[in-house]
Design brief:
The chain is built from seven helices and 16 strands. By secondary structure, it is an alpha+beta fold. The strands form four sheets. Strands 5, 8, 9, 10, 11, 12, 13, 14, 15 and 16 form a ten-stranded antiparallel β-sheet that branches. The N terminus is likely disordered.
Amino acid sequence: MAKLYSYEIDWNSFSKKTNLIKEKKHKNFKTVDYDYKTKYSTQKKETKINFNQKNFSFLYGLLFFIIVIFLFFLSISLSFASNISDTTLEEYNIFQDTNSSNLVKDYLISENNKQIDKNLNKTNVFQFKVITYSKYRVRKNETFENIAKKFGLESDSIILCNFIKKKINLRAGTILLIPNQDGRIISVNSNDSIQKIANRYGASWEKIVDVNNLTSSKLEIGQKLFIPDSKMTNYEKNQYETPIITYIWPIKGKLTSYFGPRIDPFKGTYGYHTGIDIKNDMGTPVKASMNGFVIFTGFDNIYGNNIILKHSNGITTRYGHLQTVLVKKGDQIKQSQKIGTVGSTGRSTGAHLHFEIRKYGKLIDPLKILSN
């Protein structure tokens, strides 16, 4: 027999349980959703980081490649510049020039020399008179001025062509070189060119070429060139006009023996005379040939009573065979001052003065230093 069961459902409790189950399920779904989103975001970030790393690697590689290419071309440029520098140094020899700006000048001069050679090859017709020289023997009392006037020249030209540095009195019989036109003679130095010489003396290279009858721009060291129309500079004029202090004759008289080889008057054998002998009367005053001071007075068997004076430039003068000595060692002496008298002491054949000159101890011929 069937039994009937009756249940009483507590709907409030059931409703609460159902809601709990839903909340738990929803909570589980939220957890899953959060985990999925977190995982997806992380993967996305990792993908982005990997992508950025790849980009940076590419950029670094590109930069490295650019640097390598730059260094390669830089090395080629430096090598090329070095070759140009070596060629330039060989061609222009810049280290032998005190002024580096002359490198440009030398280049221009080189180009000018090429042009000069081209012009010389084109024609042999000269526009200016070719230089010629003649020789002239000086007469008594003649000067540079009146000789220049005879030949229609400036006195500068005769002075410069004969390489005279100081104003002198011309001796009769002196041979002078006379050019057929005004100018000077110069010697070519190392690294000289026609253009350089022209610039130095303010002349045109065309005139230098024509006057010297040159057929090439190549010059040799020591070669003589005539520079037309060149005159003395102010410096040269000052040097020329500055008076020369010359050694004067200690006494007047007859030369009885010259400097150099001679027959010894006592032995009759071949010997060497260390000075000159000037004959005069016993007791004739002897004068100092130049300003100086006394470094020796005394007697010896050869020179007898003698005096030695010291002068500038290492020069000493000796006065031998004196009768009397009028100065003492250490005295300051002026030119033409009386220092003794003519005698015949020592190794002597009669009254005369032995006059001797040495330069730094080396004997020299007094006639080369004494004034006219």
